[in-house]
Write a structure and sequence with these properties.
By secondary structure, the chain is α/β, with parallel strands linked by helices. The chain has a single domain, classed as Spore Coat Polysaccharide Biosynthesis Protein SpsA, Chain A. Helices cover 39% and strands 20% of the residues. It has eight helices and seven strands. The strands form two sheets. It has a five-stranded mixed beta sheet with strand order 3-2-1-4-6. The longest helix is centred in the C-terminal third of the chain and has 21 residues. The radius of gyration is 17 Å and the shape is globular. It starts with a strand and ends in a 5-residue tail after the last helix.
Length: 223
């Protein structure tokens, strides 16, 4: 029997980006799409697709990711950001990886939508280097893992204010869980770079990544 998988989509307060994502998932061979909305949001989902389950959670990406994972009993979990967008090759690569049923974490190649500055090609290159060469894929690359891996790493750390995806990758590395590039794209919005400025936003991401890497890489090491 083929392993089952579910898609978990956390949406922060006021975030309606999932409205454009859900139609892209309507024909996916998936047990369940779990849309996790912030608990006290007034957002309503008008007639969600048949394969979509809407749950509420205390706001916070780690909490919402874990709440979505606990809602489904699927063998595999695909954690997808609300502003992600996919194409046919994304789904082809996903199904091949799930059918292989390896004990590993898969991730996609990050691409940006055309809603940001022209220099976003540099961020695409940076994400490629960070994930392929440094072994640090992030949540906006659509982390895909069997439930046994999710359980082994302890899910996502709800005590972190940010970087729960980064911490999860370090936890996997500490357990020698392989990371697999699925060599297909997941697209994400670049609007925050347009709103906050490309240089300032890029520098902030680099700084946060370096600081988190120093902190998370020490976890589990003897003092």
């Amino acid at each position: 029997m083929s392993p089952s998988f579910a898609i978990v989509i956390p949406a922060g307060p006021g975030d309606r980006a999932w409205e454009a994502l859900l139609p892209q998932l309507a024909d996916v061979r998936v047990r369940e799409v779990v849309l996790v909305l912030a608990q006290f949001e007034d957002d309503a989902v008008d007639q969600p697709p048949a394969n979509v389950t809407v749950v509420r959670s205390i706001a916070g990406r780690a909490r919402q990711l874990n709440a979505g994972a606990s809602r489904t009993d699927a063998d595999w979990l695909w954690f997808l950001h609300a502003d992600s967008r996919i194409v046919a090759s994304t789904l082809d690569a996903l199904h091949r990886f799930v059918e292989a049923d390896a004990t590993a974490i898969g991730y996609f190649d990050l691409r940006f939508l055309h809603d940001g500055p022209r220099l976003m090609f540099l961020n695409t290159l940076g994400a490629h280097v960070r994930s392929r060469l440094l072994g640090l894929p992030f949540g906006d690359q659509g982390l895909l893992m069997p439930r046994r891996v999710y359980d082994a790493i302890g899910g996502f750390d709800e005590n972190l204010g940010a970087g729960e995806d980064h911490a999860a990758i370090w936890a996997a590395r500490a357990l020698d869980i392989p990371l697999r590039a699925l060599r297909a794209p997941v697209y994400t919005s670049a609007r925050k770079y347009a709103q906050r400025g490309w240089w300032a936003t890029t520098c902030e991401h680099v700084r946060a990544t370096a600081e988190q890497a120093r902190r998370f890489s020490r976890q589990g090491q003897p003092s």
